[in-house]
Amino acid sequence: MASGRDVRDMLGLPIGADAPKAALQKRPKPAGPSRLPKGVAREVAALYGERPPPVAVYEEKKAYRAKRANTGPAKKWVRQSFVNQARPDGLVLKHWRRKRDPEEKMIGNGEGEDTAMEDRENEEPYVESSGEFLKYNVEPEMPAFTDEEYEAHLRSDDWSREETDYLFRMIKDYSYRWAVVWDRYDYKPAENSSLAVQESTANGEASQALAALPFAQTRARTVEDLKARFYHISAKLMKLHIPEVQMDADQYARYEMLTKFDPTLERNRKTLAAALMNRNMDEVKEEEFLLAELQRINMAANRLDAEREELRARLEAPLPNHQSQAGLQSFTSSQALQALFQQLFQQDRSKKRSSGVGPGRLSLSGHDIIGTPTSAQQAQMSAANRRQSMAQQVPQTPIKNLPREEEFRFNVSTHDRLTSGVSFGSDKLLKMRQAKSNVQTQKIATALQELGIPDIIPIPTARVADVFEGLIAKVSRLLDVRKVREKEEGECRVLEAMKKRLNGDTDGANDDADKNDVKEEKDEIADSQEDGDADADGDAENDEDNDEDNDDDDDDADADGDEDADGEADEDAEGEEEDDDDEDAEGEDDSRVPSVRQVSEAVSTRAMSSVGHKRSASVLSQASNKSSKRARR
Amino acid sequence: MNMPNSSTAPNANEYAGDEVSAIVLDPGYSTTRAGFAGEDVPKSVCPSFYGQIGDDGDSSRYFFGENSIHNPVGDLQIKNPWGSDGIVEDWDTATKIWEYAITSRLTGSKPTDPTKNGLNDANGDAMEVDVEALEQSEKPLEDSPLLMTEPGWNSTKAREKYIELAFEEWGTPAFYLHKTGALAAFASGKASGIVIDVGASHTSVTPVLDGMVLRKGVQKSPLAGNFVSNQIRLSFKQSSPEIPLTPHYLVASKTQVDAGAPAQASYKTFATPPTESFRRHEEERVLTEFKESVVELWPGPGRFSNGTNEEIAKNQPGRPFEMPDGWNQVFSSERFRVAEGLFDASAALTDADSPKPKDEWCIPRLVQQALTHVDADQRPLLLQNIVVTGGSTLLYKFNERLNYEINTIYPSTRNKLIAPGPVVERKYAAWIGGSILASLGSFHQLWISKKEYEEHGSNIVEKRCR
Ligand SMILES: Nc1ncnc2c1ncn2[C@@H]1O[C@H](COP(=O)(O)OP(=O)(O)OP(=O)(O)O)[C@@H](O)[C@H]1O
Ligand SMILES: [Mg+2]
């Protein structure tokens, strides 16, 4: 037998899923299930509209039907009388059954235990006895008590014997469906209730009397009342019949459950459940919102914890004797590994430093560490933190301390922090020439030219760079001072002109005073040049923004630089603050973010207001101008 | 052997079925449904209205069935045996209508059946014959057990009347009485649930637990199909110009007219015109047509009168309707208004004869009331099985609105509407449930047999059918 595979092989066709795929492609996809019922003309169906037709339309289904197997001549069926064994009254009903054939055995559905009674040829009425559905006739199990037991143990002030019986009957009737029992519970005490209590026999006609007499109900019982009574009795009876010590685990568990039923607790639970259900839309929405919020906070908290953990792992130095104690186990966590990495890196670096050139034991570069995801955070570390962490790290790295003159000779330098990659000393020098604004850069360039310093410094060693840095700092201070002077002079000129216009007499004296003032100032600034440091690394972006703003506002080109410097100082301080905040609060809570924003806003408005203040002061009154000058100083 | 598929009936053993050719009778205000248990639709659906010529008494003649009550015969009055409280009032004629429903299509008519030659026979004669020939075989239900349905609020007296009727008048061998609510839940395959039945005369809400109706929770209100019909009448009357409502029997021929233009039709004239009640009943047919094709419920969100909903409804395309006399119009937002009263009493149209319905009659309030009378633990379960049944729930967008309303009251539970799609299943749910129940083998032991009835009297129905 050749299989399809063999045939394909013989014909040189590729074996595999090619053929079925082609078959699949050939068959067009059925274009959506048509809503039209079968057997209804399209025109008729179009009249339906979107509503169901008021008259039911039956579709004729042409479903597959197997051919009828010929099983001989048609069987006869009769309406067979039968009695149901579950019925006590022997009601005879009729159902359709195969006619019983005396020769053949019963082929029918074989239900029920047929009685031995067999009818022969004569058409004697035969009554089948059906016990097929007997199994569904389930009687609920009920605890039973005798009159003596009731009298001795089960009496209650709240419940009469009649009502207890009524309750038991109801529970039996409704098979412990408490909701139904409570729904149908309608006990009406008999007329002679006081007498009825005395006679302790269970009187059968109680229900009759109850149904007939429209007496005032004693009081409405709640489900919990009913349950409490029933469970109480059940527990007592259980204990009576089986002493506690003899109960097996199951029984004891049940006994415990029965005794522990607390109707008030149950009632409270239900009130709560009902209250929960009856909440209105807003309350549900609020709850949903709160739950979502909670989930969000939880998630954020987890993330925050993880981040903090990581941060701590980066900040904190591993304990000195950590690894020696724990051995290899201590490096199972990523934190420990990170610490190890740090340490190795330090070692490697110091080794390199001491041995000069040559490949290190580990080819590690600073880039590897700095390129980790949290490098940004690390970069943002506050200066204080940085110093601290370095202080902690220093002892563990065995730095060979050279005497000062040797260090100088071998050109050894130590750095607080290394930036990644390679940088040229000339770049560093070039960078120092750049100022925040183009105008400033130009000014620096001209100043340097005046001093006779070439554009390209031939050997940009670190020491040269240091000196150059100092020089640049001085130059920028010089420029600042110059600017201040020019500005003051300009103002003086304006004021003088104003004064001249007002009264021509006094202007000469004033002018002198002003000039003196300016000179004094100049000296002062020159003195303080050493300790001051130009804001070298501020936030470039912010500064530029500020610059633009100021350019827009200012009609006085000279004032530009001045305000620039002011703004920078502010921004710088603020930047530090912000960084600190960031590190603490990141991802912690949204509420923190607006606060940070507020701070920055406040700062910027402060800057703005100071600008505005300065300007208005310069234009309006001399007195305030002086005061502001003093304040600045 | 046939392969079992979706269209073949399941084997009786699979569902514990054992059919004893019981008859299921589900009488309602608008129609009476009867059929054999085990079938999936009632074979016999007869109007519950009957015609009467002549005043009450021996000389009056009765007419039953669709064919005779729509026949414009002089002096024909159309009546209904149901009382305003949703319980049968006129027992004598109710018996005849039900008997007609059973005998006309199910068991075949017996010689003494008053409906067969009832057009000529005076009622009294038929009764006499019955009394004379006290032969079992002459009673209509001689060998069929009978399962009847009753409204959830049926009185003890009425229930006893039912069983007396079944055994004394119809001679049934066994009888059982079940509430429509529980049966409708069975029809949807649910043993527990809350059944919302919007029929013709009454809307009822019935909590059902494990096949048993929780009586304290049963709620009813008169806001149902007839209420909607009256609202439509009011709407027609209050629109300007007034919309004429001419039933079919008055129109001989009609010509096409433009929308809103007065009808141009030739009308029939009668020597002795049918009565006002006949006309009203015929008008009702037109209104039912109107309900089927035009009326729509505002599906939510919000009620129809809320905010801009009316404006939105106005901007939706209208629905045309043509009266039997040719008058026609496109109905815009007014088609929403007429059924709004079912959900929002304050939106109902009113006039001197029809005051504003009570707030607690609206369906959402009924559901709420029903649930407060149910044990708190069962409420979520019931809300997961909200069975919708009754002819008036076929109003367009009814389910959407009901769903919206229930979700507004109980936003925190999982509410699920169970509304069978086919029209038949929606209208005849109670009958279908009865058909399922009475064809079960395990139901045999619940029947009240004639012997038991004779032993205990009619009071037995209270003990056994609960
Ligand atoms: N498609 C439909 N759209 C709207 N209403 C309908 C529709 N079909 C029937 N009805 C209305 O439903 C009502 C009949 O419903 P149903 O047969 O459930 O009532 P019933 O059981 O006879 O009455 P009740 O339950 O009050 O005794 C009528 O008022 C009829 O106008
Ligand atoms: Mg009904």
From TrEMBL, chain A:
Gene Ontology MF: a single term: transcription corepressor activity
Major localization class: nucleus
TM region positions: none
Q: Where is the composition biased (Basic and acidic residues)?
A: 512-522
Q: Where is the composition biased (Acidic residues)?
A: 523-589
Gene Ontology terms: cellular component:
NuA4 histone acetyltransferase complex; Swr1 complex
Q: Which residues form the DAMP1 SANT/Myb-like domain?
A: 132-238
Compositionally skewed regions (Polar residues) per UniProt: 372-388, 597-608
- Has keyword rRNA-binding? no
Tell me, which GO biological process terms does this entry list?
Answer: chromatin remodeling; DNA repair; negative regulation of transcription by RNA polymerase II
Question: What subcellular locations does the record give?
Answer: Nucleus
Chain residue ranges for the region called Disordered: 1-38, 349-388, 503-633
Q: Which UniProt keywords apply?
A: Chromatin regulator, Nucleus, Transcription, Transcription regulation
Q: What family does this belong to?
A: Belongs to the SWC4 family.
Q: What is this protein called?
A: SWR1-complex protein 4
From TrEMBL, chain B:
Which InterPro entries does the record associate with it? Answer: Actin, Actin_CS, ATPase_NBD
Q: Which Pfam families match?
A: Actin (PF00022)
**Signal peptide range in chain numbering:** none
Lineage top rank: taxon:
Eukaryota
Question: Annotated region Disordered: where?
Answer: 305-324
Identify its protein family.
Belongs to the actin family.
Q: What is the name attached to this protein's record?
A: Actin family
